[in-house]
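During the no-cost extension, the postdoctoral fellow (Dr. R.K.) reprocessed legacy sequence entries with the updated structure-token encoder. One reprocessed record is reproduced below for audit purposes.
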Amino acid sequence: MTLKIVIDTDSAIAPFEQLRAQLSERARSGALPVGYRLPTVRGLAQELGLAANTVAKAYRALETDGVIETRGRHGTFVAAAEDAAARELAAAAGVFADRARRLGADREAAGAAVRDALRAAYDG
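Re-encoded structure tokens follow.
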């Protein structure tokens, strides 16, 4: 199985975020099955033409989100996707809530912003 990761060097999105998003989506969709062993940081960096630190940053973010897990010297593996999606959603909500509070938005304004964003994302 190949990862089929494509990094668009002309994109405004940082390469580590492109990598993180693509691996996360593949894990959630089941294209990368639970327990699939990912390439080493250095191996994937070389394959994609990225710096090892870029891949390491993406792996750390994915591990924080529960999408992948590192088993010491045994390698890095795809974690249970259902749990990862729920954890990622909770983490995103937490980041939004913290940012809304720092911006001075009350709960009603923050909720309205979320409802508007969801309507735009799901209804087009």
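The radius of gyration is 17 Å. Residues 83-123 form one domain. The remaining legacy entries will be reprocessed before the final report is submitted.
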